[in-house]
Amino acid sequence: MKNDFFKFQAQTTPFPLAIEVEKAEGIFIYDTSGRRYYDLVSGIAVCNIGHRHPRVITAIQNQLEKYLHVMPYGEMIQSPQVKLAKMISSILPDGLDVSYFVNSGAEAVEAALKLAKRFTGRTEIVSFHKSYHGNTHGALSVSGNEEKKFAFRPLLPDVRFVTFNEEEELNAITEKTAAVIIEPIQGDAGVRVPGQNFMRALRSRCTEVGAMLIFDEIQTGFGRTGKMFAMEHFGVQPDILTIAKGLGGGMPIGAFVSSDEVMSTLSHHPMLGHITTFGGHPVNCAAAVANIEVLREPGIIDEVEAKGQLFEKLLQHPAIVDFRRIGLMMAIEFKDFDTVEAIVKGCLAKGVITFWFLSNNVSFRLQPPLTISTSEIEEACVIINAVILECDNA
Ligand code: PLP
Fold this sequence. Notes:
The chain has 13 helices and 15 strands. The protein has helices at residues 2-8, 42-45, 54-64, 79-90, 105-120, 137-141, 146-149, 196-209, 260-263, 282-296, 304-314, 337-349, 374-393, and strands at residues 21-25, 28-31, 36-39, 98-102, 124-128, 159-162, 177-182, 212-216, 240-243, 254-258, 322-326, 329-333, 352-353, 355-356, 363-366. The strands form three sheets. Strands 4-10-9-8-7-5-6 form a seven-stranded mixed sheet, with helices on both faces.
Protein backbone atom coordinates (compact mmCIF):
# COMPACT_ATOMS: atom_id res chain seq x y z
CA MET A 1 0.00 0.00 0.00
CA LYS A 2 2.80 2.38 0.91
CA ASN A 3 4.51 2.01 -2.48
CA ASP A 4 1.24 2.61 -4.31
CA PHE A 5 0.57 5.68 -2.14
CA PHE A 6 3.85 7.21 -3.30
CA LYS A 7 3.47 6.00 -6.89
CA PHE A 8 -0.17 6.73 -7.72
CA GLN A 9 -1.22 9.48 -5.34
CA ALA A 10 -0.05 13.04 -5.95
CA GLN A 11 2.17 14.14 -3.09
CA THR A 12 2.00 17.46 -1.28
CA THR A 13 5.38 17.38 0.48
CA PRO A 14 8.53 15.27 0.24
CA PHE A 15 7.88 14.01 3.79
CA PRO A 16 4.23 13.05 4.43
CA LEU A 17 3.41 11.43 7.80
CA ALA A 18 2.55 8.25 5.82
CA ILE A 19 0.75 6.47 8.65
CA GLU A 20 -1.26 3.69 7.01
CA VAL A 21 -4.63 4.19 8.67
CA GLU A 22 -6.70 1.20 9.67
CA LYS A 23 -9.34 2.93 11.81
CA ALA A 24 -9.95 5.92 14.03
CA GLU A 25 -12.04 6.23 17.17
CA GLY A 26 -12.30 9.01 19.74
CA ILE A 27 -8.94 10.74 20.01
CA PHE A 28 -7.02 7.78 18.53
CA ILE A 29 -5.92 6.78 15.04
CA TYR A 30 -4.75 3.16 14.56
CA ASP A 31 -2.42 2.03 11.80
CA THR A 32 -2.52 -1.28 9.94
CA SER A 33 0.04 -2.80 12.30
CA GLY A 34 -2.31 -2.12 15.23
CA ARG A 35 -0.28 0.80 16.55
CA ARG A 36 -2.26 3.50 18.35
CA TYR A 37 -1.59 7.22 17.93
CA TYR A 38 -2.91 10.08 20.05
CA ASP A 39 -4.38 12.46 17.48
CA LEU A 40 -3.56 15.87 18.91
CA VAL A 41 -4.46 17.79 15.75
CA SER A 42 -7.99 16.47 15.01
CA GLY A 43 -7.29 16.10 11.29
CA ILE A 44 -6.40 19.83 11.47
CA ALA A 45 -9.30 21.17 13.53
CA VAL A 46 -11.91 18.93 11.91
CA CYS A 47 -12.72 16.15 14.36
CA ASN A 48 -13.66 18.43 17.25
CA ILE A 49 -15.87 15.75 18.85
CA GLY A 50 -13.34 13.01 18.10
CA HIS A 51 -13.22 10.44 15.35
CA ARG A 52 -16.38 8.53 14.48
CA HIS A 53 -18.58 9.95 17.19
CA PRO A 54 -21.45 7.44 17.58
CA ARG A 55 -24.12 10.12 17.11
CA VAL A 56 -22.52 11.24 13.85
CA ILE A 57 -22.25 7.63 12.63
CA THR A 58 -25.93 6.98 13.39
CA ALA A 59 -26.98 10.17 11.59
CA ILE A 60 -24.95 9.16 8.54
CA GLN A 61 -26.40 5.64 8.57
CA ASN A 62 -29.97 6.95 8.83
CA GLN A 63 -29.44 9.31 5.91
CA LEU A 64 -27.84 6.54 3.81
CA GLU A 65 -31.16 4.69 4.02
CA LYS A 66 -33.03 7.65 2.52
CA TYR A 67 -31.14 9.41 -0.27
CA LEU A 68 -27.68 10.53 -1.34
CA HIS A 69 -27.18 13.27 -3.93
CA VAL A 70 -30.42 14.22 -5.66
CA MET A 71 -29.85 17.67 -7.26
CA PRO A 72 -27.34 20.53 -7.13
CA TYR A 73 -27.54 22.80 -4.10
CA GLY A 74 -30.63 24.97 -3.77
CA GLU A 75 -33.17 23.24 -6.01
CA MET A 76 -34.89 20.65 -3.87
CA ILE A 77 -36.00 20.74 -0.26
CA GLN A 78 -33.73 18.28 1.55
CA SER A 79 -34.48 18.05 5.24
CA PRO A 80 -30.86 17.57 6.43
CA GLN A 81 -29.93 20.85 4.70
CA VAL A 82 -32.91 22.74 6.06
CA LYS A 83 -32.34 21.43 9.60
CA LEU A 84 -28.68 22.33 9.47
CA ALA A 85 -29.33 25.85 8.15
CA LYS A 86 -31.87 26.44 10.94
CA MET A 87 -29.49 25.03 13.55
CA ILE A 88 -26.58 27.22 12.37
CA SER A 89 -28.84 30.26 12.59
CA SER A 90 -29.72 29.28 16.17
CA ILE A 91 -26.06 29.25 17.28
CA LEU A 92 -25.23 32.60 15.64
CA PRO A 93 -26.33 36.15 16.39
CA ASP A 94 -29.16 37.83 14.47
CA GLY A 95 -27.99 38.96 11.07
CA LEU A 96 -26.23 35.66 10.43
CA ASP A 97 -29.39 33.77 9.65
CA VAL A 98 -29.02 32.37 6.16
CA SER A 99 -26.56 29.63 5.19
CA TYR A 100 -25.32 28.56 1.79
CA PHE A 101 -23.64 25.14 1.88
CA VAL A 102 -20.51 24.31 -0.07
CA ASN A 103 -17.88 21.57 0.02
CA SER A 104 -14.84 23.04 1.71
CA GLY A 105 -13.33 26.01 3.47
CA ALA A 106 -11.70 27.48 0.39
CA GLU A 107 -14.98 27.30 -1.50
CA ALA A 108 -16.76 29.11 1.33
CA VAL A 109 -14.10 31.84 1.15
CA GLU A 110 -14.42 32.13 -2.65
CA ALA A 111 -18.16 32.51 -2.37
CA ALA A 112 -17.93 35.00 0.52
CA LEU A 113 -15.63 37.23 -1.54
CA LYS A 114 -18.01 37.05 -4.51
CA LEU A 115 -20.95 37.85 -2.26
CA ALA A 116 -19.22 40.94 -0.83
CA LYS A 117 -18.38 42.18 -4.33
CA ARG A 118 -21.91 41.55 -5.55
CA PHE A 119 -23.54 43.28 -2.56
CA THR A 120 -21.29 46.36 -2.45
CA GLY A 121 -20.60 46.74 -6.16
CA ARG A 122 -16.94 47.29 -5.18
CA THR A 123 -13.88 45.21 -5.98
CA GLU A 124 -11.11 45.85 -3.44
CA ILE A 125 -10.44 43.23 -0.78
CA VAL A 126 -8.37 43.97 2.33
CA SER A 127 -6.69 41.08 4.11
CA PHE A 128 -3.95 40.55 6.69
CA HIS A 129 -0.33 39.53 6.52
CA LYS A 130 0.27 35.91 7.55
CA SER A 131 -3.40 35.01 7.11
CA TYR A 132 -4.53 31.73 5.59
CA HIS A 133 -7.84 31.37 3.78
CA GLY A 134 -7.38 28.38 1.48
CA ASN A 135 -5.70 27.24 -1.70
CA THR A 136 -7.98 28.01 -4.63
CA HIS A 137 -7.04 31.07 -6.68
CA GLY A 138 -9.31 33.55 -4.88
CA ALA A 139 -8.62 32.19 -1.41
CA LEU A 140 -4.89 32.12 -2.10
CA SER A 141 -5.06 35.70 -3.38
CA VAL A 142 -6.32 36.90 0.01
CA SER A 143 -3.91 34.72 2.01
CA GLY A 144 -0.92 36.57 3.40
CA ASN A 145 1.93 34.12 2.90
CA GLU A 146 4.03 35.20 -0.09
CA GLU A 147 6.15 32.06 0.01
CA LYS A 148 3.10 29.95 -0.86
CA LYS A 149 1.85 32.35 -3.54
CA PHE A 150 4.70 33.47 -5.76
CA ALA A 151 4.63 30.43 -8.05
CA PHE A 152 0.97 30.92 -8.90
CA ARG A 153 0.79 34.58 -9.88
CA PRO A 154 -1.03 36.40 -11.33
CA LEU A 155 -3.70 36.03 -8.66
CA LEU A 156 -6.74 38.25 -7.98
CA PRO A 157 -6.08 41.97 -8.52
CA ASP A 158 -7.16 44.66 -6.05
CA VAL A 159 -6.13 42.87 -2.86
CA ARG A 160 -4.33 44.88 -0.13
CA PHE A 161 -2.61 43.48 2.91
CA VAL A 162 -2.31 45.18 6.29
CA THR A 163 -0.77 44.13 9.58
CA PHE A 164 -2.88 41.99 11.90
CA ASN A 165 -3.79 43.55 15.23
CA GLU A 166 -2.49 47.04 14.26
CA GLU A 167 -5.26 49.55 14.71
CA GLU A 168 -3.49 52.35 12.76
CA GLU A 169 -3.48 50.19 9.63
CA LEU A 170 -7.26 50.06 9.53
CA ASN A 171 -7.27 53.37 7.64
CA ALA A 172 -6.38 51.32 4.57
CA ILE A 173 -10.05 50.24 4.61
CA THR A 174 -11.94 52.85 2.58
CA GLU A 175 -15.09 53.50 0.53
CA LYS A 176 -13.41 51.46 -2.22
CA THR A 177 -13.25 48.34 -0.08
CA ALA A 178 -15.77 45.62 -0.85
CA ALA A 179 -14.66 43.36 1.99
CA VAL A 180 -12.17 42.84 4.75
CA ILE A 181 -11.45 39.19 5.39
CA ILE A 182 -9.92 38.13 8.69
CA GLU A 183 -9.44 35.07 10.85
CA PRO A 184 -10.60 36.40 14.25
CA ILE A 185 -7.73 34.35 15.64
CA GLN A 186 -5.02 33.65 13.09
CA GLY A 187 -4.51 29.89 12.96
CA ASP A 188 -1.75 29.06 10.52
CA ALA A 189 0.27 32.10 11.53
CA GLY A 190 0.76 30.12 14.75
CA VAL A 191 -2.26 31.06 16.91
CA ARG A 192 -2.31 34.87 17.06
CA VAL A 193 -5.05 36.34 19.24
CA PRO A 194 -5.79 40.00 18.47
CA GLY A 195 -6.86 42.55 21.07
CA GLN A 196 -10.49 43.29 21.68
CA ASN A 197 -9.94 46.97 20.85
CA PHE A 198 -8.50 46.05 17.48
CA MET A 199 -11.46 43.82 16.62
CA ARG A 200 -13.93 46.48 17.69
CA ALA A 201 -12.09 49.18 15.74
CA LEU A 202 -12.11 46.89 12.70
CA ARG A 203 -15.87 46.42 12.98
CA SER A 204 -16.42 50.18 13.33
CA ARG A 205 -14.20 51.03 10.39
CA CYS A 206 -15.99 48.55 8.10
CA THR A 207 -19.37 49.91 9.14
CA GLU A 208 -18.17 53.50 8.68
CA VAL A 209 -17.03 52.97 5.07
CA GLY A 210 -19.64 50.38 4.07
CA ALA A 211 -17.18 47.49 3.63
CA MET A 212 -18.38 43.98 4.39
CA LEU A 213 -16.55 42.31 7.24
CA ILE A 214 -15.89 38.61 6.61
CA PHE A 215 -14.87 36.44 9.55
CA ASP A 216 -13.15 33.25 8.46
CA GLU A 217 -13.95 30.87 11.32
CA ILE A 218 -13.05 27.80 9.33
CA GLN A 219 -10.40 26.83 11.87
CA THR A 220 -11.67 28.63 14.98
CA GLY A 221 -15.34 27.59 14.83
CA PHE A 222 -17.26 24.86 16.61
CA GLY A 223 -15.80 25.11 20.07
CA ARG A 224 -12.10 25.10 19.22
CA THR A 225 -11.34 28.29 21.16
CA GLY A 226 -13.63 27.57 24.12
CA LYS A 227 -16.67 29.30 22.58
CA MET A 228 -18.85 28.01 19.76
CA PHE A 229 -17.31 30.76 17.60
CA ALA A 230 -14.20 32.85 18.22
CA MET A 231 -16.14 36.05 17.50
CA GLU A 232 -17.78 35.60 20.91
CA HIS A 233 -14.46 36.46 22.60
CA PHE A 234 -14.56 39.93 21.08
CA GLY A 235 -18.24 40.85 21.17
CA VAL A 236 -18.24 41.72 17.47
CA GLN A 237 -19.94 40.06 14.55
CA PRO A 238 -19.20 39.99 10.84
CA ASP A 239 -21.45 40.63 7.86
CA ILE A 240 -20.42 37.30 6.36
CA LEU A 241 -19.07 34.22 8.15
CA THR A 242 -17.22 31.30 6.60
CA ILE A 243 -17.20 27.89 8.29
CA ALA A 244 -16.04 24.37 7.35
CA LYS A 245 -13.61 21.93 9.07
CA GLY A 246 -15.29 21.32 12.48
CA LEU A 247 -18.79 21.76 11.01
CA GLY A 248 -19.19 18.27 9.60
CA GLY A 249 -18.09 16.05 12.48
CA GLY A 250 -15.52 14.48 10.12
CA MET A 251 -17.48 14.88 6.88
CA PRO A 252 -16.56 17.44 4.20
CA ILE A 253 -18.84 20.45 4.28
CA GLY A 254 -18.45 24.21 4.39
CA ALA A 255 -20.81 27.15 4.43
CA PHE A 256 -20.95 30.88 4.18
CA VAL A 257 -23.52 32.62 6.30
CA SER A 258 -24.99 36.11 6.12
CA SER A 259 -28.25 38.03 6.40
CA ASP A 260 -31.19 37.41 4.14
CA GLU A 261 -30.70 40.89 2.63
CA VAL A 262 -27.09 40.22 1.63
CA MET A 263 -27.50 36.57 0.64
CA SER A 264 -30.53 37.17 -1.54
CA THR A 265 -28.35 39.08 -4.04
CA LEU A 266 -26.97 35.75 -5.25
CA SER A 267 -30.26 34.60 -6.71
CA HIS A 268 -30.76 37.36 -9.26
CA HIS A 269 -28.82 39.61 -11.66
CA PRO A 270 -27.31 37.18 -12.43
CA MET A 271 -29.49 34.31 -11.33
CA LEU A 272 -27.37 31.42 -9.98
CA GLY A 273 -24.78 33.91 -8.70
CA HIS A 274 -23.10 31.03 -6.93
CA ILE A 275 -23.70 27.38 -7.69
CA THR A 276 -22.32 24.03 -6.60
CA THR A 277 -23.32 20.50 -7.53
CA PHE A 278 -22.40 18.76 -4.31
CA GLY A 279 -22.61 21.61 -1.76
CA GLY A 280 -24.70 20.58 1.23
CA HIS A 281 -24.60 16.87 0.45
CA PRO A 282 -27.44 15.38 2.54
CA VAL A 283 -25.21 12.83 4.28
CA ASN A 284 -22.76 15.55 5.27
CA CYS A 285 -25.55 17.84 6.47
CA ALA A 286 -27.03 15.03 8.58
CA ALA A 287 -23.59 14.45 10.11
CA ALA A 288 -23.20 18.18 10.78
CA VAL A 289 -26.57 18.38 12.54
CA ALA A 290 -25.56 15.53 14.87
CA ASN A 291 -22.15 17.13 15.39
CA ILE A 292 -23.64 20.47 16.48
CA GLU A 293 -26.14 18.70 18.75
CA VAL A 294 -23.23 17.00 20.51
CA LEU A 295 -21.22 20.23 20.75
CA ARG A 296 -24.18 22.01 22.34
CA GLU A 297 -24.44 19.50 25.17
CA PRO A 298 -22.95 20.51 28.51
CA GLY A 299 -19.45 19.24 29.25
CA ILE A 300 -17.82 19.81 25.87
CA ILE A 301 -17.24 23.45 24.92
CA ASP A 302 -17.48 24.62 28.52
CA GLU A 303 -14.52 22.38 29.42
CA VAL A 304 -12.28 23.44 26.55
CA GLU A 305 -10.54 26.31 28.32
CA ALA A 306 -9.69 24.20 31.41
CA LYS A 307 -8.30 21.44 29.19
CA GLY A 308 -6.18 23.99 27.34
CA GLN A 309 -4.88 25.30 30.64
CA LEU A 310 -3.93 21.76 31.66
CA PHE A 311 -1.84 21.36 28.49
CA GLU A 312 -0.16 24.67 29.22
CA LYS A 313 0.57 23.67 32.81
CA LEU A 314 1.94 20.24 31.91
CA LEU A 315 4.06 21.25 28.93
CA GLN A 316 6.83 23.23 30.56
CA HIS A 317 10.43 23.25 29.47
CA PRO A 318 13.04 26.04 29.27
CA ALA A 319 13.43 25.32 25.53
CA ILE A 320 9.86 26.54 24.95
CA VAL A 321 10.22 30.12 23.76
CA ASP A 322 6.52 30.92 23.61
CA PHE A 323 3.24 29.13 24.29
CA ARG A 324 0.34 30.78 22.47
CA ARG A 325 -3.05 29.34 23.25
CA ILE A 326 -6.74 29.98 23.30
CA GLY A 327 -8.99 27.08 24.29
CA LEU A 328 -7.61 23.97 22.64
CA MET A 329 -5.82 25.85 19.85
CA MET A 330 -2.13 25.90 20.73
CA ALA A 331 1.18 26.94 19.20
CA ILE A 332 4.35 25.93 21.01
CA GLU A 333 7.35 27.87 19.83
CA PHE A 334 11.05 26.91 19.92
CA LYS A 335 14.24 28.62 18.85
CA ASP A 336 14.32 27.21 15.32
CA PHE A 337 12.70 25.03 12.70
CA ASP A 338 15.11 22.12 13.26
CA THR A 339 13.98 21.76 16.87
CA VAL A 340 10.31 21.87 15.84
CA GLU A 341 10.89 19.28 13.15
CA ALA A 342 12.72 16.99 15.57
CA ILE A 343 9.87 17.31 18.08
CA VAL A 344 7.07 16.64 15.56
CA LYS A 345 8.94 13.59 14.22
CA GLY A 346 9.97 12.43 17.70
CA CYS A 347 6.37 12.62 18.93
CA LEU A 348 5.16 10.67 15.90
CA ALA A 349 7.74 7.95 16.57
CA LYS A 350 6.36 7.70 20.11
CA GLY A 351 2.72 7.56 18.98
CA VAL A 352 1.62 11.20 19.30
CA ILE A 353 0.47 13.17 16.26
CA THR A 354 1.34 16.88 16.36
CA PHE A 355 1.86 19.04 13.27
CA TRP A 356 3.46 22.09 11.69
CA PHE A 357 1.88 25.43 10.82
CA LEU A 358 1.76 26.81 7.27
CA SER A 359 3.10 30.26 8.13
CA ASN A 360 5.14 29.74 11.27
CA ASN A 361 7.97 27.24 11.09
CA VAL A 362 9.31 27.70 14.60
CA SER A 363 6.16 26.43 16.34
CA PHE A 364 4.23 23.18 16.33
CA ARG A 365 0.49 22.88 16.71
CA LEU A 366 -1.72 21.07 19.17
CA GLN A 367 -5.46 21.05 18.40
CA PRO A 368 -6.77 17.85 20.00
CA PRO A 369 -10.40 16.77 19.87
CA LEU A 370 -12.35 18.81 22.43
CA THR A 371 -13.53 15.52 23.91
CA ILE A 372 -10.02 14.56 25.06
CA SER A 373 -10.07 13.47 28.72
CA THR A 374 -7.85 14.74 31.53
CA SER A 375 -5.99 11.42 31.70
CA GLU A 376 -5.44 11.40 27.92
CA ILE A 377 -4.00 14.92 28.17
CA GLU A 378 -1.69 13.79 30.98
CA GLU A 379 -0.52 10.69 29.07
CA ALA A 380 0.11 12.65 25.87
CA CYS A 381 1.99 15.40 27.70
CA VAL A 382 4.33 12.87 29.36
CA ILE A 383 5.31 11.71 25.86
CA ILE A 384 5.69 15.23 24.42
CA ASN A 385 7.78 16.35 27.40
CA ALA A 386 10.07 13.34 27.00
CA VAL A 387 10.54 14.18 23.31
CA ILE A 388 11.26 17.86 24.06
CA LEU A 389 13.84 16.77 26.62
CA GLU A 390 15.50 14.40 24.15
CA CYS A 391 15.56 17.04 21.40
CA ASP A 392 16.96 19.67 23.77
CA ASN A 393 19.75 17.33 24.88
CA ALA A 394 20.60 16.23 21.34
N1 PLP B 1 -9.52 29.29 6.20
C1 PLP B 1 -8.84 28.91 7.29
C2 PLP B 1 -8.74 29.84 8.46
C3 PLP B 1 -8.22 27.65 7.34
O1 PLP B 1 -7.53 27.28 8.42
C4 PLP B 1 -8.35 26.79 6.21
C5 PLP B 1 -7.69 25.49 6.20
O2 PLP B 1 -6.78 25.20 6.93
C6 PLP B 1 -9.08 27.23 5.10
C7 PLP B 1 -9.65 28.49 5.13
C8 PLP B 1 -9.23 26.36 3.88
O3 PLP B 1 -10.11 25.31 4.14
P1 PLP B 1 -10.09 24.02 3.19
O4 PLP B 1 -8.78 23.33 3.39
O5 PLP B 1 -11.28 23.20 3.64
O6 PLP B 1 -10.27 24.51 1.80
